[in-house]
Amino acid sequence: MKSGQIFTAIDIGTTKICTIIAMINEEDKLEVKGIGKSRTRGMENGRVIDMQLATISIKEAINAAEEKAERKAKNIYVGIAGEHIRSFNALGRISIADEGAEITPEHVSMVIKDAKTNIKRKPGGNKLEIIHAIPQYFDVDGQKGIMNPINMNGYNLSAFVHVVMADIHSMENIKKCVEMNHYKVKEIFLEPIASAHAVLNEVEKKLGSILIDIGGGTTDIAVFYKGSIRFSAVLPLGGEKITQDLSIGLKTSPQIAEQIKIEYGNALVANKNSKEQIEIEGIGGRPNRKKSLYYISSIIEARMREIFEQAYNLLNDNNNLSLISAGLTISGGASQLKNCAILAEKVFNQSTKIGYPDLSRLAGPTESLNSPMYATTVGILYHAYDQKKNARSQINQSRQNDSFLNFFKRIFAYFS
């Protein structure tokens, strides 16, 4: 890929917005040039509720990254989640030819388009915009489980496709917030799909893996099996609910509750006999009070257990969890709570790890990105880079095929 090309990834979460500006270096790696963060305002569960505040928050994150990068943000790719996201597994079918023929990339595009059309025909489909249509596998003349049908011969081609849709107006409002800052959105990604590029390897995706990304306002879920995504969903619960619970239970401000969550947070109730206490600042000048770490942990565990149990029930209703061999990966800010992986393992009965982003494909100052809370932003960069590289490879291949075809045409014309 062309050295010097800029990619910008923006993760628009309920509580924070993170921007990374990276440039392709001479070694064909994404070199991090600038990282910017801001507190999210004007957003709720993935929807814009105040255009002005959301626009300012996005601007602050982009400007902070630009200042460190000493260059403007370009090729902007945005990650989103929220209650308005809908995911479906769709089936597309086409006939290749009456006498049978070789399957081409055009046939694959046509069968995926048919799957998308079938989904759009569902009730309410006109209010949703397709942001992903990812092929899971194909059938050729009844032969099932084909991962790449190109160059095979057959009469009929079917595609099983994972389609992700978002509310049209919610999407337009997010794009508008970026554009009001005089930038243009290149593409929008679903956050768990982006995160998977950073925290799951190909073996995990092939053997079967669950990814749960616990953000501030939502919990994003994705299931991978045999190398492709099989299920995705969004729960309207996240780390912000834990902060609210602590604020109410401890009778303190949300800001103090957030600090306590970060410093003392434990996803499993501490020893019942523990008498260790901390002082909690009162609200509006009211006197401070002391609360035990056991009490604080009980508030946190109750909400975290609810998140994991809801995720488990949703996954169990829609998937065969016995096929998941690689286990469970948890990412997002709330995954950093002490004993989070242990609690998840108890609920899911699956081997569990915390999803730190793989930074091996990045160059430059990457130390600050070594945290589960940056899994989505790093994944957006990888996803954008891979798409661009694959598109360029296809163009080059097409040009090469055209040159071979023209060469043989010239030979044929000469002998004629």
Summarize the structure.
This protein has 416 residues and is of the alpha/beta class.
Describe the fold and architecture:
This protein is of the alpha/beta class. Among the domains are: 81 residues, Dna Ligase, domain 1 (2-Layer Sandwich), CATH 3.30.1490.110; 61 residues, 2-Layer Sandwich (Nucleotidyltransferase, domain 5). It has ten helices and 21 strands. The strands form six sheets. The protein has a six-stranded mixed sheet, sandwiched between helices. Helix 6 packs across helix 7 and helix 6 runs antiparallel to helix 8. The C terminus is likely disordered.
- The share of residues in extended strands comes to 25-35%
| Widest sheet, order of strands | 13-6-1-2-3-21
Shape descriptor reads globular
- Give the name of the CATH architecture of one domain: 2-Layer Sandwich
Radius of gyration: 24 Å
Residue stretches low in confidence (pLDDT < 50, at least 5 long) are: 411-416
Record field, number of beta strands: 21
Average pLDDT score: 89
Structural class: alpha/beta
Termini gap: 41 Å
Number of helices: 10
Helix content: 25-40%
CATH hierarchy class name of one domain: Alpha Beta
Largest sheet: 6 strands, mixed
What is the fold-level CATH name, i.e. the topology of one domain? Dna Ligase, domain 1
